[in-house]
Write a structure and sequence with these properties.
By secondary structure, the protein is an alpha/beta fold. It contains 6 helices and 6 strands; from the N terminus they run βαβαβαβαβαβα. Strand 3, helix 3 and strand 4 form a beta-alpha-beta unit. The protein is globular. It starts with 12 loop residues before the first strand and ends with a helix.
Length: 157
């Protein structure tokens, strides 16, 4: 009947750079159906502040979170109850250790193209381990259209 269902092979979350506006009933209904089967929608905080999406996971960069914490605390958009924190590998060890004070539900590791992915990832994971931070981490990797399969295998490995 066109309704999504979740099994072992289904993703737990989708990241949406933009979300359908609340005036788009079909788009919002499709998102609600995903949420009903426990597929979380992660969206940038700016998008969710413009047009809240109930049940969405708000994504902030680590630096945004730390700045907000220093200025009275992070405020999630209306309807959002979970926080995803994005790091890009350029953060200092002290900044990554600052995750300890945040109540992040997930960490998105999106290493900049200009940064060596392997070394940046290792430094982030070593800091998390040393600080006893057990937040789940998702590797967020983007490839341009037409990237050869061999490159995908090498870079995602």
């Amino acid at each position: 009947v066109g309704m999504p269902f979740k099994d072992l092979a289904t993703t737990d979350a989708i990241y949406m750079r933009t979300i359908p506006p609340s005036s788009n009933a079909d788009g919002r209904r499709a998102i609600r159906r995903l949420q009903d089967v426990a597929i979380h929608v992660i969206a940038p905080a700016a998008e969710l502040h413009k047009d809240p999406l109930p049940g969405a996971v708000t994504m902030h960069t680590l630096r945004e979170c730390l700045a907000a914490e220093a200025n009275g605390g992070l405020k999630l958009p209306e309807g959002s109850t979970r926080l995803a924190v994005q790091v890009d590998g350029s953060e200092s060890i002290e900044e990554v250790a600052g995750l300890k004070q945040l109540k992040a539900d997930v960490l998105l590791l999106n290493v900049r193209e200009s940064t060596q992915r392997f070394h940046a990832s290792r430094r982030v994971f070593e800091t998390l381990q040393r600080e006893g931070i057990n937040t789940p981490v998702i590797h967020q990797i983007s490839f341009s259209e037409g990237t050869p399969r061999d490159e995908l295998v090498i870079y995602t490995g």
